[in-house]
Amino acid sequence: MATLRVELVAADRAVWTGEAKMVVAKTVEGEIGLLPGHEPMLAILGAGEVRITLEDGTGIKANAEDGFLSVEHDVVTIVARHAELA
Amino acid sequence: MGAQLRVYRQKIKSAQTTKKITRAMELISASRIYKAQQRVASSTPYSRAVTRAVSAVATYSNVDHPLTTEPAVIERAAIVIFTSDRGLAGAFSSNVLKEAEQLTALLREQGKDVVYYLVGRKAVGNFNFRKRSSLRSWIGGTDLPQFDTAKEIADEVVGLFNTPASEGGVDEIHLVYNRFVSMIAQVPEVVRLLPLEVVEGVDAPADNEVFPLYEFEPDVTKVLDALLPVYIESRIFNAMLQSAASEHAARQKAMKSATDNADKLIKNYTRLSNAARQAEITQQISEIVGGADALVTTDDDN
């Protein structure tokens, strides 16, 4: 099964990168769930939790605010001024 | 001890003291370069991601945004100059200031007014000395740039950019900073920040290529509004980090050659002082011998 390549980066460092099955993030319009094959998208990030589900089902949680989220060819990039793993 | 000898000894001592200082500074800089380089490296994912996103919007949508469109007439340009807070770093700050000077001349030639933003004490000192004015300056912390400072600078320049030229705003923003190439090479670089010029990272799509349909949330203009300040911040922050890494590298290089020169001085003065000491001894011996001879001759006379 296809996976998403996720990059979660803060202004001064890369917080987390890896493969994932699903990403749930909060944009200014509300929560959005991303699965492999999602259409290219660029959204402004709202303050809140980012949940990343790995292939083996375990979840990673992170807090991110003040940034944006882009999806392109199964690459999810979450860019935030402040981000850290919860 | 002869006067000559004492002078040489003093000089040796002073060179030794200086050497201790320069050596310490060299070691400190050497240990900080590594950290500064790492900070450049760790901020790269962010700026790369931001750049990619900006390119995506710029390439895959045709919105006219004030930050991306070139005004018909450019009346005034702002230059942000990144120098260091402290000296003893070779030509680090003066290179950047020289580059800014050239840029100023070029812009003036094109009939543009130039205003300045200064980062680092050296730039402020230089401007005070030449009795030039700047709009605002940031001093302190150039060797360890903080993101908050970058944000402050970005807010300021974007604010000025959004002000109409008739009210003192600018239409163009340039950055002048030292780019870190390697431990031995730092190149002063001029980048036009606004209006956005080159967006690296994404190749312009071929004419027959189908654009991936980007979905923007909430909408293109809002995304651009949010994205561009972030892009500018990251460019400014990157410039500050590069400048910090270059500063440490330049200082290490300058202090290394200062230490080497001190070594050379000490060696030369040691030779000279040895010669002086030897000359003194020789003179004393000849005085004693001469004196003894004189006594012998006087004894013979009696």
Structural overview:
The complex is a heterodimer of chains A (86) and B (302). Chain A has 86 residues and is mainly beta. Chain A is built from no helices and eight strands. Chain A has a single domain, classed as ATP Synthase, domain 1 (Sandwich), CATH 2.60.15. The model of chain A has no long low-confidence stretch (mean pLDDT 86). In chain B, β1, α2 and β2 form a beta-alpha-beta unit. Chain B has five helices and six strands. Chain B has two domains: 58 residues; 226 residues, ATP synthase, F1 complex, gamma subunit (Pyruvate Kinase, Chain: A, domain 1). The model of chain B has no long low-confidence stretch (mean pLDDT 86). Helices cover 60% and strands 13% of the residues of chain B. Chains A and B meet through β5, β7 and β8 of A and α1, β6 and α5 of B.
How large, in whole angstroms, is the Cα Rg of chain B? 30 Å
Principal-axes geometry of chain A comes out as globular
What is the share of helical residues of chain A?
under 10%
Classified in CATH, the superfamily of the largest domain in chain B is: ATP synthase, F1 complex, gamma subunit
Please outline the major beta sheet of chain B: 5 strands, mixed
- What strand line-up does the widest sheet of chain B have? 3-2-1-4-5
CATH topology of the largest domain in chain B: Pyruvate Kinase, Chain: A, domain 1
**Could you tell me the mean pLDDT of chain A?**
86
The CATH C-level name of chain A is Mainly Beta
Number of strands of chain A: 8
Helical stretch count of chain A?
Answer: 0
Q: Biggest interface pair, residues each?
A: A-B, 25 and 28 residues
- CATH architectural designation of chain A: Sandwich
Written as H for each helix and E for each strand, in order along the chain, the element string of chain A is EEEEEEEE
**What class do helices, strands and sheet pairing of chain A give?**
mainly beta
What is the total tally of β strands of chain B?
6
